[in-house]
């Protein structure tokens, strides 16, 4: 068995309606559907699955999701205008040959930390 790609990511939330608003309005991800305490969004072939945790052991912030963007500065400014709270400014993470990796980390409405990332070819 070879893993081919990531298809779906669960993001635990505390308030489903507030989280749906954040991912749909602030991040502008396409809303797929909601069923009960579950909501699904499309992110270029990967489904983001928002859920109220069924057990207390799962009621904690999720892993960091890195959202790739073409222009980090423009995306950063656009999300700031929509009320997204950033932890830091866009900054250089690594330079590997002629590729620079830039990131800016932010919090969603539920306390989960995510990031915008962009890889820039310098040559």
From TrEMBL:
Gene3D superfamilies: 2,3-Dihydroxybiphenyl 1,2-Dioxygenase, domain 1. Keywords: Lyase. The lineage of its organism: Bacteria, Bacillati, Bacillota, Bacilli, Bacillales. This is Predicted enzyme related to lactoylglutathione lyase. Pfam families: Glyoxalase. GO terms for molecular function: lyase activity. It comes from Bacillus oleivorans. Residues 5-119 form the VOC domain. Signal peptide: none annotated. Transmembrane segments: none annotated.
């Amino acid at each position: 068995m070879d893993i081919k790609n990531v298809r779906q990511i669960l993001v635990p939330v505390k308030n489903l309606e507030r989280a749906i608003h954040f991912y749909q309005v602030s991040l502008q991800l396409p809303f797929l559907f909601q069923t009960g305490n579950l909501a699904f969004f499309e992110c270029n072939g990967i489904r983001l699955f928002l859920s109220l945790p069924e057990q207390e052991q799962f009621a904690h912030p999720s892993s960091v999701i890195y959202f790739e963007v073409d222009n980090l500065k423009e995306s950063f400014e656009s999300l700031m205008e929509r009320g997204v709270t950033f932890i830091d400014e866009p900054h250089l993470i690594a330079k590997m040959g002629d590729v620079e990796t830039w990131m800016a980390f932010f919090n969603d409405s539920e306390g989960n930390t995510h990031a915008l990332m962009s890889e820039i070819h310098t040559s």
